[in-house]
Sequence to fold (588 residues):
Amino acid sequence: MTSDERRFAGIDRRTVKPALLVLALAVLMSVVLPLIDSTTPYHDQVHRGDVAEIADGITLVPTPGWDLATGALVGHTRSPVGSTAATELVDGSVDFYVQAAPFAGTPSALLTRVNQISADLHHARGRAAAATHRYAVTTRQGVVGVADDFAGLTRQGSVVAFVFRLREPSTASQGPSREGVEIVVSGPRGSISRRRDDIVTMIRSIRAAS
Amino acid sequence: MSTLAADRRYAIEQSGWGEDFRLVQPHNLAFWVYCVLVAAGAHVLAGQISIAAAAYSGALISGLIAFGLLAVAYLWFIHYEDRYTTVPRKLAAAGFVWGFVGATGAFALLGNDAVMSLYAKAFGASFAFDWGAALAAPIDEELAKGAGILLLLALAPKLIRSPFDGLILGAFVGLGFQISEDISYAWIGAANAFGDVGATWSTIVVRTLSSIPSHWMFTAVFGAGLIWFIGRPDVPARKGLGAGLMLTAMLMHGLWDASAAIAGNSAFGWIVPMTVAGVLIAVFVWIYENTAPIEREWMRELMAPEVERGVVTPAELDALAGPRTTLRRYIRAQPDPRTARHVLDAESELAHQIARDGGAETAAVQRARAGVGRARGT
Fold:
C-alpha cells in the first residue's frame, strides 16, 4: 500500500485509532466527569448527633440537614485526621468551609494572614471584595476568635479565625501546640441571612478536646 | 555481506537504534492530539501557577528548586539504567513533558477532583475521605500517563521496539508527572497551612523520601505492560502479562494511596507502604531483568563485527552487552580500571555512531573507532 493510500485528509490512517482513543479519554476526564459532578447534588446529609472532626483533637457539630462535602465524621472514618485538614459543609448555595493547621500566633494574626492571602488571590484574579471591621466571636467552650465580613459582587460572607491550644504538647520545649482554625462562610445574600442561626451555632460548637 | 554484517543490519533495523525522533509529524494525528492536550494542560497548569505565584510565591519557588534538583537526579538514574539501545533524548523529553503538563493538566487535575467529588456524593464524604484518592488516582493517573506512551508509540513506532523501551519511556513520563505533582503539593501544603513555608518544606522532605515507589516506577511498570499487551515486530504480544502489569501498577498505586485508611489507628501503619514499595521494586527489577536480554542481544549483534576487526575484545563485548554486574567485574579485574572504563565508554560511543549511521562505514564511524584506540592509549 502506498503512503497516499494510507492517508485520509492528509492524515496517516494508522495513527487515527490511538490518537482518537487518547483524545476521547481526555474529554471523558476533563469535560464529561466534571460536568456530571457539577450536576450531581450532595446526598450526605448530617444527622443529629453527628460530629465532624475538623483536625486532630478539634470537633464541630454540624447542623442536621446540611451536607458534608469534604471531611470526616467522628467514628465514620478509618484514616486518622491530621493536624492539617479541611472540612466543607454545604446547604443549597451556602458554603461553610473550615481549614485547620498548626498556627503559633493570635486569632487576629491568623485573620490578617488569611485576609492577606485572599487579597493577593483576588488581586491576581482581578476581583475585589470589601471587608468590614473586625468583631469578636466566642465558642461555647469560651475560646475567643475574631471575624470580619466581606461582600463581593455575587456572594457575601464571613471569615472567622480561632487559635486553639491542644492538650498534648508538640514538644516539651514549645509547650502546648496551637491549632489555627479558619472558617469561611459564603453564599448569596438572602441565602446567608436565612441560615444565619445554623452558621452561628456551628461556629460556636467548635471545641478542642479537653 | 558476511553473516556478522547482516546480523548488525538486522539488529539496527529491529531495535530502531540510531533512529532520530521527530515530534513534528503533520500527517500523524498523534502529533496533533499531543499538541492539543499539552496546550490544554499548560492552560490549566498556568491557572494553578498564577494562584501559587500570587499568594504562595515562597512555597512555589522552594518547590521548583527542590523538586527540580530531584528531577535531575532521577533523570540521570533512568538514563544510567538505559545503557543499551538508549531512548533518544528528544523522545525522553517528549515523554517527560507529557507527564509534566499533558497528563496532569489535561487529565488528572480535573478528572481526579470530579471523581472524588462523585464518590463523596454517591457514598458519603467519610467514604471519600478514606478511599476517594485510592479509587480515583490510580485509574485516572495511570490511564493519563499511559495515554502519553500510546501517543509516543504512534509517533515513534521504530524507536519503541521492546517492553524495555516501554519501561524506560514510562519512567520518563511518570517522572514528569511526579515532579509536576510534587511542585503542586509544595505550594498546596503552604496553602493548607495559612501560607506557612515551613509546611512546604515538610512536604518536600516527605515527597522526596517517598519518591522511589512513586509515579516514575508506576508508569515504568505500566509502560512495559502496555508494550507487551500491544506487541512489537520482534516481541510478540502477551496480552495476559501486559494487562497484568498495567493492573499491578494501578493496584500498587491504589494501595499506596489507601495505606492510611487500611492501617487506621494501628501502630503498623508503615506495613502497607513498605509492602507496596517492596513489591513495586521487585516487579520493576523483574521486568528489567526479563526485557534487557533482547537489548543486550542487539548490542552484541551490533558490535560483533568490531570484535572480528580487533577493535573490541571478546571480554569487552561481554562487558558492554552484559548486565551491570558483568561490567563491574570486568572493570575491577583490569590492571588499570580507569583506562578500562574509558575504553568501554569509547566503545559505547562507537556502537551509537554505528547505529546512527545505519551500519554504514562512514567517516564518523571511523573517527569513533579511532577514539577507542586513543582510549586504550595506543
Observations:
- Residues 121 and 182 of chain B are 28 Å apart (CA to CA).
- The radius of gyration of chain B is 23 Å.
- Chain B has two domains: 16-269, 310-376.
- Residues 16-269 of chain B form one domain.
